[in-house]
Amino acid sequence: MLTDEFGREVTGVRVSLTDRCNFDCVYCHNEGLGDTRGPMDPQDDEMDADDVVRFLEVAAEFDVDAVKFTGGEPMLRQDLEEIIARTPDEMEVSLTTNGTFLPGRADALVDAGLDRVNVSQDALDPQDFAEITKSGAYEKVIEGVDAALEAGLTPVKLNMVVFEHTAGYVPEMVDHVAENDGLQLQLIEYMPELTGKPEWNIEIERVHEWLAEQADEIEHREMHDRKRYWVSGGEGTNGEREQSERDPHRNAERSGDGSRSSSDSSDVGMVEIVDPVENPTFCANCHRVRVTHEGYLKGCLNRNDDLRSMGEMTKPEIRDAFRDVVANRVPYYGEYMIRNEEGEWEINDEYIEEYVGV
Predict the structure, then answer these.
(1) Cis peptide before 72 (omega within 30 of 0)
(2) Does residue 39 surpass a pLDDT of 70?
(3) Which backbone phi and psi does 341 adopt, to 5 degrees?
(4) Which pLDDT belongs to residue 24?
(5) Any idea which of 1-15, 263-277, 284-298 has the lowest mean pLDDT?
(6) Phi and psi for 186 in degrees, rounded to 5?
(7) pLDDT digit string (tens) for 148-193?
């Protein structure tokens, strides 16, 4: 297993299969590359199935045990089932999708070897959903979530980006996953440095505080240094629930893998917050390397000055590039970005001069 200079083992890879997408979400940063989306037809610059599999075989040599396929919309790849089927057996395979193509394909994906799926769903109202995604495909997304559940891809994790346009929808989304078996919710902090609209930002700590008030139980995940909130279903969308309806042990913190006993109520939802912005602890616990759809390795979501081509995608070239990218990984906050005397984050000029300028 490869480890960078900060002791972070690389245990997972996140592979973008295309930058094409049938949605136009207002917050999209396309894996940190910006709005690079081109025509909807397959493009020559996309890695083909052989390239993707060859990379994964090399990653497996370095004991990488998990891959997440992303995009764009990865299900625009008609060879997705083939790629999953050819992924090394020792790797857990997950997928992030907008869900519109899951109806009719979810069973085939499971048969190919898909273990988990994240579906982007930022609102429960079709009009609100359309305003965020610039798509009228709300019903298709709901069908996709149902198809994933029926195919056995449980729990299905719903991804929701939290920013000015969606913050008001959080309580009803929390109730939604609490009241529907097989669903979990992942609230993703909006990243203004990648989207260019800082005015849409909200304080994610307010969401943490609100969830802590609502939660029956709070779990601390040591591996990622994140918190999971277990919340009972409630009435209304303002998140207010009578104390008598709560578990008497609410707000008890625990550590573990998130499993709950069979005696637990089914009307309990798991909510997790992904909050990387200005968060050195998050960066210190990052164990992933990313791959762009064009075959470049990327050591950090927030950076594009560390892109490393894997050349003609031969295994020796992939091995060399992978080693170099891991060796040059640094925590974005705390090393690449540091606080100045005023307490604001700024680029670490010494790091830039020593490494990026080479």
Answers:
(1) yes
(2) no
(3) -65, -25
(4) 87
(5) 263-277
(6) -115, 110
(7) 999 999 999 999 999 999 999 999 999 999 999 999 999 999 887 7
Residue boundaries of the structural domains of the chain: 12-284
How many Cα atoms within 13 Å fall on the side-chain side of residue 283?
Answer: 20
- Confidence label for 226 from pLDDT (cuts 50, 70 and 90): confident
* pTM recorded for the entire structure: 0.88
The separation between the first and the last C-alpha atoms of the chain, rounded to the nearest angstrom, is 26
Q: Note the pLDDT of residue 59.
A: 98
Query: What is 122-179 written as a DSSP string?
Result: --SSHHHHHHHHS-S-HHHHHHHHHHHHHTT-PSEEEEEEESTTTGGGHHHHHHHHHH
CB contact set of 81 (below 8 Å; sequence gap of 6+): 105, 108, 109, 111, 112
Q: How far apart are CA 200 and CA 65, in angstroms?
A: 36
Q: Which of 39-53, 127-141, 199-213, 275-289 has the lowest mean pLDDT?
A: 39-53
Dmax of the chain from CA atoms? Answer: 63
Peptide bond into 155 cis (omega under 30): yes
> Exposure of 326 by Cβ count < 10 A (0-12 exposed, 13-18 middle, 19+ buried)?
buried
DSSP letter, residue 243: G
Nearest to 2 by CA among 225, 224, 288, 283: 288
Q: In degrees, to the nearest 5, what angle opens at C-alpha 303 toward C-alphas 301 and 304?
A: 110
What tokens were used for 170? 């959080």
Cα–Cα distance, 278 to 214 (Å, whole number): 25
Rounded distance, CA 76 to CA 101, Å? Answer: 8
E strand or H helix that includes residue 219: strand 217-221
Q: Is 207 helix (H, G, I), strand (E, B) or coil?
A: helix
Question: Domain 12-284 is in which class?
Answer: alpha beta
C-alpha distance from residue 168 to each of 9, 43, 129, 278 (Å): 37, 38, 13, 23
